[in-house]
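The data are quoted verbatim for reference:
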Amino acid sequence: MNTTDTRPKFDPAAIVFTIIVIMAVGLALYQPSLFTQIGDFELKTLIVPLLMVIMFGMGTSLSVDDFVRVSKMPKGVFIGLALQFSVMPIIGFSLALVSGLPPEIAAGIILVGCSPSGLASNVMAYISGANLALSLSLTALSTLIAPFITPLYMSWLAGEFVPIDSLAMFLSISKIVLLPILAGLIFNHFLHGKFGFLDRLMPKVSMFGIALIIAIITAAGRDSLLSIGFLLIALVLIHNIVGYVLGYYSAKAFGMDEASSRTIAFEVGMQNSGLASGIAVEMGRTATMGLAPAVFGPAMNITGSTLAAWWRGKPVNDTDLPKTKDEKSKT
């Protein structure tokens, strides 16, 4: 049996991204005025447009083939989505209940849990030698269905903390997610290969955009964050790490292979904190509900990078990897 590790070399992008986010948060805490406004222009108004650009970039990376790929791994997709939208919302709600935090800040923890998985999970799946195709599929699908599921969960779980307008939230998430991704898909379908620089540029734009969003939210809620920072960081880390653990071992319990179980761990534990921040902005609660997403972003990148590096040192055997059609025909 061939157990040679054929995975790509370690990509430093994840570490670089984590460092950039940490530096941005540190600068926002030290000099918040840099990320609050320039003249009369409030920088928080950039959050939603930046998210729309990031989602457009996701759309340009998708094609019909990606949706065909999803149909070939229904078990992994179903289990991944079920865990994504059950484990994290329930953990977030439980932590919010016992936190003793002000209601709007506690609701931010639930908001993180009710959000879809983020692009960072794809990077970690790639580094760790997990099932990257499943990771990309889960991120795309969870993002596409978030406008329908997230408002319902927030109304159900966060309603006792803050007033939730489900319809308004649905329209906001649709504007931020569905329309840009649809535009990206159309762009990719008709203009694929004609603007190669976009493929190289969009990942960098996404990294910069997410770091800037986190910095703006951190600056806006600096005073609250400094007063409750350690408690919120502890709660966010528990949320994140328990997501990894339950995602991984639940996938194993459902009979998923090692590579796919690693993927589901990242997809469950790593949320789209940028989208959660954008929802908080749309709700007019940047400095309160937006705090948990701002903390979750850098925290999950630190833990995710660490877990991906550790798993990379534990190669996945060929027998654990999903087989292609050619490989199946030989067996």
